[in-house]
Amino acid sequence: MSSIYDAAGCETPVCANGTPSSRDTVPIGVRSMQSLHDGPAQWLALALLQLDQMLNTAGTSDVPVLRNVRLLVSEALRGTRQVLEERTDSPAEAPMPLVASLIELGQRLSSLTGQTLCLDCSTVIPDPPQPVAATVLQAARELLVNTCKHAPGARVEVALVAAASGFELTIRDNGPGFDPLVVNRRHGAASGLGLGAIPERLNRVGATLNLQSRPGAGVRACIRWPARGSEPVHGDAQIPQWLSSP
User: Fold this and answer.
1) What is the Cα–Cα distance from 81 to 35, expressed in whole angstroms?
2) Lesser CB count within 10 Å: N end or C end of the chain?
3) Where in the chain are the domains?
4) Are 218 and 174 spatial neighbours (Cβ–Cβ below 8 Å)?
5) Rounded to the nearest 10 degrees, how much is the dihedral formed by the CA atoms of 26, 31, 34, 40?
6) What is 98-244's CATH number, 3.40.718.10, 3.10.560.10, 3.30.565.10, 3.20.20.140?
7) pLDDT digits 0-9 by tens, 159-201
């Protein structure tokens, strides 16, 4: 049985109904870059955070070793980001049920980062098509890793519940939140990487993302499959409809 890292680490292009489409739809190079960003680059960034925390509490004799390790990890991350900048989608078939994969993802992130994650995943939800499950897992990982990076120490709640003929996956935290306009400028969809690329990937499998936040109010992200009508419209034309303030 493969881990969640393997399950959500590479992409099979799919149609809106959740069935695979031609692999020519998404160039191999683009899929590789997205996998590199969503996998190794994210884990290296988390490793740096862990090393920084250790340096703040380490004894004098441990500091030189930790600094050398941090330098190596930093160089690895720098090189990874350089490749991404020079060549700027991505889930393969999920070998585990969606519920089990989400639980494994939460447990893995919690053990790696020390973040408090509360998981509430219903076991009565029928498993979606594998391309849908893998895409949702990848989106969940991106959202959770962002939380671990930008809201360390926050309480994170992950809930998967049945909705209509599919499910709703909600990820929320009580961290510092953010300004949607600022985040949209920084993580637009043009690069095909990161937060801004999640809605497009989900749309390919007939799912939607609604992400709400404001400074001081935490973050709430809701993934729905299948999509439920049109996304809510808000007044700021500079912010995409999937990103808004509560």
Assistant:
1) 12
2) N
3) 98-244
4) yes
5) 170
6) 3.30.565.10
7) 999 988 899 999 999 999 988 887 777 665 554 456 778 888 8
